[in-house]
Amino acid sequence: MKYISLIFVSLFLITSCEMNNDSNEIYPTADRPDTPLDDSIDINSDNVVDFVLCYMELATTDEPSSSGSIIGSINPINENQILYRNLEGCLFLEKNDTIRKNDNTNSHWSDYKADIIEISRQHNNIWDTNWTILSNHESDYYLGFKLKIDSTEEIGWMLLNFDIESGITKILSKEITNIDELIIN
Fold this sequence. Notes:
14% helix; 1 helix; mainly beta; 5-stranded antiparallel β-sheet
């Protein structure tokens, strides 16, 4: 009888542990992620900062059910601008698209910051496990930009790469020109 009771207790404990492990997989609790360092971008290598990549945390104050996020943005410096499309943001360009100094179809130049990546905090301070790229595309994240240098303007694009685990953003390639149109290739 003792052996049968011991077997039932052992089975109960094993089953309880397995149920608890399943519950942790369904409801992950992620700690606050490390925020990547801000970075200056000198896109045309003239020793002048053209854009700043920065991260800012936004939060609500209604504890304990707070939510919020950390958002990574590219901020144009001086009179530089980013190509922006309403409802799509700034990461809408694709290979073979044309960037124009003027008259960009369904898009416009903006001197405001462009949000490109974020990670959210849900209720009870549970953070998402991965960063979200703020684009409708699933790869090839192109950002169009315009540089104003003295009385001249240059246009270009940069191909961005995002690490969704760390939130770090890198520039993979770029092209800059002083002509009126540039095709992403």
